[in-house]
Amino acid sequence: MKITTILSATMLALALLSAPALAGDQRPYEITEQREACADYDPLRRPFFGDLHVHTGYSMDAATQFTRNTPRDAYRFARGEEVGLQPFDRDGRPLRHARLRRPLDFTSVTDHSEMLGEVRICNSNDLPGSDSDMCWLYKRLGPLATLPMLARTMVGRERMKFCGEGGKLCLDVAADVWQDIRDAAEEAYDRSPECSFTSFVGYEWTSILGMGINMHRNVIFRNENVPSLPVSWVDTPSAHNLWEQLQDKCIDGVKGCDALTVPHNSNLSGPGLMFESAKLEGPRQSGIEVDADEATARRRWEPLVEIMQHKGDSECMMGGDTTDEACGFEKLPYDNFAGVGRFRGVGAVDGGHKSSMVREALKKGLLQDENGVGNSLKYGIIASTDTHLGTPGLTLEDGSKGHGGAGNSASTGVPIGLPDNFEFNPGGLAVVWAEENARDSLYAGMTRRETYGTSGTRPVLRFFGGWGYGEQMCDDDNFASAGYEGGVPMGSDLAARPDSAGSPLFAVQAMQDPGTSEHPGTALDRVQIVKGWVEDGSTREKVYDVAGGDLRASVNARTCRTNGSGHSSLCTVWSDPDFDAEQRAFYYARVLENPVCRWSQKICVEAKVNCLQPDKVHPGFAACCSKTHRKVVQERAWSSPIWYTP
C-alpha cells in the first residue's frame, strides 16, 4: 500500500480543470429542460456542495417558532446573501442575522407538504378559516400550538375543521403556496452559461408512525415540471404508496416530470422501521416481507439516504460486531420524536437502535440479495441540515444559530445561552460529483449515487473501485481519469471479477476543506474504508485505516485551541486483505478531520462558563456542565458505497 501526502492544492486544481462546454445532445445524460449550456463543463466531474433539506416559515413547525424567512430568502441565503433571524423588535426587524462564508452550489427548499394551506391560513387575517379557534391558538401560543395541530394532522391524519368538506379550502390555499415555492426555485436557478447556482423544487413527506416514529422522506424533482400539489402524508399511508402516487401524479401525470425520495433521520425511526418494508403503515406491522417488486421499486425511487443532519448522525452504533469507536459521533439519546424536548412525554422512548443505522441497512440489503429478493437498500450517501430557519448550509461549529423546528426557540427575545438543544448539531452537506452545475447533471449524479455526505465542512473525497489499479495512481495528475477508465466511482457496482484477479482495489483521495483566508479549514486525520459482507448467512463488518492516522492532533476543550498537525491531502490504493470472492460485500470511504471544539463548547468557552462554580452558571448555559455534553467533535465525510457481487 502506498500513501501519498500532498502539501499543496496543485492536485485539486488539476483535477478540477474544465473542458469546453458540450452541446446538450453530447452530454452523457438526458437533457430535460431548456437552458443555456454551462460554460464550465468537466467530463471528469467536479464536487458540488449543497443542501437538500431546508425548511422556511412555510413549514408548520418552523412557523410556530416564528421563522419568517420564505423560500426566496432561503435561496438568497444559499447564494451568499444575508438574512434576518428571529427574534424581532416591535417594528418587525430581525435582531439576529446570518450569512454563509461560502455560497452553496445547489439547494432544495423542502417545506412540509402537510399543512401548507393551514399554515398560510392561520398566518393571515383575511383568508376564510383564519378566525378559527385553532388559528387563534396558533397565533398566540407559538410553539405550544404545535402539539394539538401535529396530533390532529400527523398522528390522526385528519384535516382541520376549518378546511371544510374534503379539506378543499386548505388544499386550494396549499396549491397557491406550492406555486410560490415553485416560483422561488425558478427565480433562484441560474440558467445562464455561468451556472452559478442550482435550485431544485422539492418538499418533505412527513410520515409519523405511532406517537413519534419518523419515516420522513424528502421529495426532489428533477426540473420545473411537477404536480400541481405535493403528495402529503395525510393522503398516503406508506412510503410505497407515496411512490405509487408520484408515479401517477408526476411520471404519468405531468410531461417531463421525474422525482426521487430521500429518507432521513433513520436514527429516529424507532427499532429500525425506516429500513423495513416500505409498505409499513404502522409500528405493529413490523416484519412485512420485502419481495422482489418492492426491492425494485425502492431502488428506483430511493437511490440516496441522508446519513446525518441537525437531529443526529445515523451512520452506525456500537454493539454486536460493531467495535468502531467513531460510531459514537453525534448520537441522540432517544429513538423517536417523543424524546425531543418540547414533545417529551407524549410517547415511549428508547435510547437508540443499531437497526436504525445506515450501515445496518446496507448490510441488510446484502442479506436480501443473498436470499434472492434483490437489494432494496442500495443507498448512496448524502447529508444535509434540516434547518428550520431558512438558512441552508449554515453548518460550521462556530457561530451556530440553532435550528428552529424541534430545537430551542428564540421567539421570546435574544437567546441567552445555547441557541439550541445541546444534543443537536449544525447539520451536514450533500455533495454530488457532476459535469456541471445544472439540474440534469446534478440529478443524474444523484440517481447514479455518485455522492457523498459531510458533517458540515467541505473536504473533497473521491473513491473508485476496480481490478487493475496501480499504486502509481496517487502520483498521477490523472487520478480521476484513471479511476473511471480502470473501474467505477462511488455509488456503483464493481465489474465482474476477471478470472486472473485477486482482491478488488480501491483508490481513495481526500483533500482538506480549504476554508477561507480568515477561517481556514481543518487538516485531515485519516482515511478509513468500511466493509460490510455476508458470511454463512449473517452479516459482518470491519473498518480499515488506509491512510493517515499518524500525526495525533488534539484540542484543548477548555480553550478550544488545537494542537498538532494533520494532512492537507491523503491518497492511497488499497487492496482488501480479507477478500473472499464468494461473499457479497460493500465498501465505503470515511474521512476524519482533526478534532476541534464542538459548536456548544465554543459558546460555553466564549461565555466563560465555569462548571466548578455551578451557582454562577446562567440557566441558559446549564447544558455546558452536563455529564452528557460532548465538547469535542471530529468532522467527517462519508462516500457512497461500492458493491461487490460474486
Supply database-style keywords.
646 residues; alpha+beta; 2 domains; twelve-stranded mixed β-sheet; five-stranded antiparallel β-sheet; globular; disordered N terminus
Describe this structure in words.
The protein is α+β, with helices and mostly antiparallel strands. It has two domains: 37-454, no CATH class; 460-644, no CATH class. Helix content is 20%, strand content 22%. Strands 2, 5, 6, 9, 10, 15, 16, 20, 21, 25, 28 and 29 form a twelve-stranded mixed β-sheet that branches. The protein has a five-stranded antiparallel β-sheet with strand order 1-24-19-17-18, with helices on one face. Helix 3 (71-78) runs parallel beside helix 7 (168-188).
Q: Which term fits the overall shape?
A: globular
Instruction: List the uncertain runs.
Output: 1-21, 409-414
Strand pairing plus helix content: what structural class?
Answer: alpha+beta
Query: Distance between termini?
Result: 25 Å
Rg result: 24 Å
Relative strand content? 15-25%
In round numbers, the mean pLDDT is: 92
| Biggest beta sheet summary | 12 strands, mixed
Question: Layout of helices and strands, plus pairs?
Answer:
Layout lengths: L1 E3 L5 H6 L30 E9 L5 H4 L7 H8 L4 E6 L5 E5 L7 E4 L6 H7 L10 H9 L4 H10 L12 H21 L9 E8 L2 E2 L3 E2 L2 E5 L17 H13 L7 E5 L28 H10 L2 E3 L1 E2 L2 E2 L44 H13 L9 E3 L46 E6 L4 H9 L3 E4 L5 E7 L12 H8 E3 L15 E7 L12 E12 L2 E11 L5 E3 L4 E3 L5 E7 L9 E9 L2 E2 L1 H8 L25 E2 L2 E4 L2 E3 L2
Parallel strand pairs: 2-5, 5-6, 11-14
Antiparallel strand pairs: 1-24, 2-15, 3-4, 6-9, 7-8, 9-10, 12-13, 15-16, 16-28, 17-18, 17-19, 19-24, 20-21, 20-25, 22-23, 25-28, 25-29, 26-27
Helix pairs in contact: 3-7, 4-7
